[in-house]
Amino acid sequence: MSDDGCLKKSIANIKQTMKATFNNIDEYIAGFPQDIQKILEQVRATIKQAAPGAEEAIKYAIPTFTLNGNLVHFAAFKNHIGFYATPSGSDAFKKELSVYKTGEGSVQFPINKPMPLDLITRIVKFRVAENSNSKNR
Asked: pLDDT tens-digit profile of 19-61?
């Protein structure tokens, strides 16, 4: 199969996965091509390391980590990994996130570039502290 044919098949798989319903993060990741699975597993491991007490869930049909409420979400798309750290999480790292496409509480990390795992770690740790502080109020 040509590179173009492989790309079209990968895009079709991603579109199909985005429409599916999942019971857990393993099922979500398994629905993607190997290269995307690797990226998703890197993001997942980074979040787990930064928030060891967080629990995994599927919310809004995407992988979610919770700790005293929603912590962060992530998802794969055709050209990027969406990372959702709430508006406060994104605002706290506005300068560092300015090199990426962002929205209110979200950022798009291009799939064809290395994932900024150090930045993801710092954002997750910020969200852990934020959720912990709101719990203690």
From this structure: 568 899 999 999 999 999 999 999 999 999 999 999 999 998 9
CB 93 within 8 A of CB 78: no
Count CB neighbours of 112 within 10 A.
6
Q: Return the bridge partners of 72, or none.
A: 65
Look up the CATH number of the domain holding residue 34: 3.90.1150.200
pTM: 0.84
Scanning the structure block, which residue is given the tokens 């291009």? 110
Across 105-131, average pLDDT: 97
Cα R_g (the chain), whole angstroms:
15
For the chain, the domain total comes to: 1
Bridge-partner residues for 81, per DSSP? 76, 109
Q: What is the b/e burial string over 36-64, where b = at least 16 CB atoms within 10 angstroms of the residue's CB?
A: beebbeebbebbeebbeebeeebeeebbb
| Region at 69 (left for phi over 0; alpha for psi -120 to 50; beta for the rest) | left
| pLDDT value, residue 113 | 96
The pair of structure tokens assigned to 73 is 């979400």
